[in-house]
Design a protein that fits this description.
- The protein contains 13 helices and ten strands.
- It has a five-stranded mixed sheet with strand order 8-7-6-9-10, with helices on both faces.
- By secondary structure, it is of the alpha/beta class.
- It has helices at 26-43, 88-99, 112-121, 179-186, 195-200, 202-218, 229-232, 239-246, 253-261, 268-303, 318-322, 326-337, 351-369; strands at residues 2-5, 51-57, 61-65, 68-71, 104-110, 127-133, 137-144, 157-161, 309-316, 341-347.
- It is globular, with a radius of gyration of 22 Å.
- Helix content is 44%, strand content 17%.
- It folds into two domains: 24-110, ATPase, nucleotide binding domain (Nucleotidyltransferase, domain 5, 2-Layer Sandwich); 112-349, Hexokinase, domain 1 (3-Layer(aba) Sandwich).
- Bound molecules: beta-D-glucopyranose (BGC).
C-alpha cells in the first residue's frame, strides 16, 4: 500500500487539512495522516490486516535507511515546529500506535519524484528521471554509482534526489531574480530558501502575477490606476487563475469573469495585459525549469559517454498537468537545450502512491529473501 503527504493543494496552497496547517505540531500532523489511513482502511474493509506501507513524503530529508529519513526543513509554506531534525517514519509509526485501531508496517519512505520515476519505470524501462512541477518543484535521476561518493561500490546506478528547488540559496540565482521574486521570498515562511522553486512552483506563481499587476496599476498602466482591496491582499491570486486566464478562448470572457470576481472593472485592453502578464510569468517558470532538467539530462549523457541518450522522464504535478501551455513550452525548451538526447515525457497518474507501493513491495520481498 502506498500513501503520501505532500501538502496537496492543486496549483494553489489550499488543501491544508484541518490539522495539517502551518501551525500544527508534528503529533497533530501525523495523527491526521494516520486518521486518513484509518478512514481508508475502513472504507476498503482492510482494518483487520497488517499491511506493509510505503510513505511518500515530499519534503527534503536525510535518508539514513529505506525506512528512516530525517526532515531537514519544511518547504512550500508548511511549518510544524519540532518536526525538523526528526525521523518522519518514526513520527508516523508513533501516531499509528497512538490511534491503536489498526496495525501497519511502514517499510519504505520515498520522495514524490522518486515515486513518480518508479511508477513510470513500471511502464517504460527507459524512465530514469522523475520530476514534479506542482505546488513545489524537484527532480530525481539515476546516477552512475562511481559518481556517488556517499555509497561504496562502483557498479550500476543509484537514484539521486536532487532537491533542486533549493538551488539559489548561495546567491546562484541573484542575477535572475526580479523585484517580485524578492517580495515573494521575503514574505514566505522560508526566506532565502527554495529560490529556484519559488520561480517555478504553483505555490508562488499566482502571487508573482499579483505583484506584477500591482506594479502596473501603480504605474497607471492597468485598471485606470486603481487596484481593489482583494487584489491588494497577499495570496488571493491563486495559480489556478493563471491557468484559467491563459485558457481563455480569445473572447476574454474567462479573464473578465476572474477579474470582476476581484472587484475590478477591466477594459478589453486590461484583460489582454493581464493575460500577457500570466504568459510571461508561466513561460519564465517553464524555461527556468527546462534549464534544470536539461542540466540533469546532459550530465547523464556525458557520464554515460553516449552519443545519443534515449531517455524517458516521468512527470507529475498540478502546474505541469493543469496549465494549458506549460508542458509544451517546457518540452520545447528542454529539447532545444539537450542536443544528442532523445527524450520522451510521460505523465504519471497517481505516481506518488503507486510508486511508494511498488517500492514497498520490493522492500518486503528483499526483506523476505534475507530472512527478516
Ligand atoms: C520538496 C521536494 C519535493 C517537491 C515537489 C519541494 O518543496 O523539497 O522534496 O519533491 O517540493 O513536491
Amino acid at each position: 500500500m502506498g500513501t503520501g503527504w505532500r501538502g496537496r493543494g492543486g496549483t494553489g496552497a489550499r488543501g491544508r487539512g484541518r490539522h495539517g496547517d502551518s501551525s500544527a505540531t508534528p503529533p497533530q500532523l501525523f495523527d491526521y495522516i494516520s486518521e486518513c489511513i484509518s478512514d481508508f482502511l475502513d472504507k476498503h474493509q482492510m482494518k483487520h490486516k497488517k499491511l506493509p506501507l510505503g510513505f511518500t513524503f515530499s519534503f527534503p530529508v536525510r535518508h539514513e535507511d529505506i525506512d528512516k529519513g530525517i526532515l531537514l526543513n519544511w518547504t512550500k509554506g508548511f511549518k510544524a515546529s519540532g518536526a525538523e531534525g526528526n525521523n518522519v517514519v518514526g513520527l508516523l509509526r508513533d501516531a499509528i500506535k497512538r490511534r491503536g485501531d489498526f496495525e501497519m508496517d511502514v517499510v519504505a519512505m520515498v520522495n514524490d519524484t522518486v515515486a513518480t520515476m518508479i511508477s513510470c519505470y513500471y511502464e517504460d524501462h527507459r524512465c530514469e528521471v522523475g520530476m514534479i512541477v506542482g505546488t513545489g518543484c524537484n527532480a530525481c535521476y539515476m546516477e552512475e554509482m562511481h559518481n556517488v561518493e556517499l555509497v561504496e561500490g562502483d557498479e550500476g546506478r543509484m537514484c539521486v534526489n536532487t532537491e533542486w528547488g533549493a538551488f539559489g540559496a548561495s546567491g546562484e540565482l541573484d542575477e535572475f531574480l526580479l523585484e517580485y521574486d524578492r517580495v515573494v521570498d521575503e514574505t514566505s515562511l522560508n526566506p532565502g530558501q527554495q529560490l529556484y522553486e519559488k520561480i517555478i512552483g504553483g505555490k508562488y506563481m499566482g502571487e508573482i502575477v499579483r505583484l506584477v499587476l500591482l506594479k502596473l496599476v501603480d504605474e497607471n498602466l492597468l485598471f485606470n490606476g486603481e487596484a481593489s482591496e482583494k487584489l491588494k491582499t497577499r495570496g488571493t491570486f491563486e495559480t489556478r487563475f493563471v491557468s484559467q486566464i491563459e485558457s481563455d478562448s480569445g473572447d476574454r470572457k474567462q479573464i473578465y469573469n476572474i477579474l470582476t470576481a476581484f472587484e475590478l472593472l477591466p477594459s478589453g485592453t486590461d484583460c489582454d495585459i493581464v493575460r500577457r502578464v500570466c504568459e510571461s510569468v508561466s513561460t519564465r517558470a517553464a524555461q527556468m525549469c527546462s534549464a534544470g532538467l536539461a542540466g540533469v539530462i546532459n550530465r547523464m549523457r556525458e557520464s554515460r559517454s553516449q552519443d545519443t541518450l534515449k531517455i524517458t522522464v516521468g512527470v507529475d504535478g498540478s502546474v505541469y498537468k493543469l496549465h494549458p501551455s506549460f508542458k509544451d513550452r517546457f518540452h520545447a525548451t528542454v529539447r532545444q537545450l539537450t542536443p544528442g538526447c532523445d527524450i520522451t515525457f510521460i505523465q504519471s497518474e497517481e505516481g506518488s502512491g503507486r510508486g511508494a507501493a511498488l517500492i514497498s513491495a520490493v522492500a518486503c520481498k528483499m526483506a523476505c529473501m534475507m530472512g527478516q
